[in-house]
């Protein structure tokens, strides 16, 4: 597990990686560093398939959902339980976190690019559990994300506990096009600031 930010922070945000890149990818490093600079304690871990890839170098498909859920449960247990934790992650990591958040009793959920459906397959929704989600949730989504566009997400039945914030012209990594006049750094900074503000709001609810 990788740890960033002040050890004395009142809330720790536990983040899991996406399907294709590890917990210490440049994108995950930038998010962790940005949040740590804003006083957030960030803990990162890897799913078993990614840990095996790190050891053996062979790219393998993600583990099946029960294994991914168990990895999340083990990570939260290893940090003392959900009461003082917020959880989430990039794409796959955030989706699996959303499946276990209520059961683990965590304080909040942060999804950085939620995969509402596979690209080009809008009929294959991954949203059924989101309608009844009881954990305060922030989903940060690029407006060009092929896993879920503003028009598509507007039609989904989502829990009132979920706030979806849109990052202008961002793709699934929140990167904008050059012609947008925005930069990847600007979009990522905006996302990090939104997460930090969300965690502050959670502190106010205690």
Give a short summary of the structure.
With 206 residues, the protein is an alpha/beta fold. Helices cover 36% and strands 17% of the residues.
Describe the structure.
- The protein is α/β, with parallel strands linked by helices.
- It has one domain (2-204): 3-Layer(aba) Sandwich (Rossmann fold), CATH 3.40.50.
- 36% of the residues lie in helices and 17% in strands.
- It contains 6 helices and 7 strands, in the order ββαβααβαββαβα.
- A 7-stranded mixed beta sheet has the order 1-3-2-4-5-6-7, with helices on both faces.
- α3 packs across α4 (92-104).
- The chain starts with a strand and ends with a helix.
- The model has no long low-confidence stretch (mean pLDDT 95).
Based on secondary structure, the structural category is alpha/beta
Number of domains: 1
Query: How far apart lie the N and C ends?
Result: 27 Å
The proportion of strand residues reads 15-25%
Key features of this structure:
Rossmann fold
Sequence-ordered SSE layout with sheet pairings:
Elements: E1 2-4, E2 12-16, H1 26-37, E3 41-45, H2 48-56, H3 65-78, E4 85-90, H4 92-104, E5 108-112, E6 137-142, H5 150-154, E7 162-167, H6 184-204
Helix pairs in contact: 1-6, 3-4
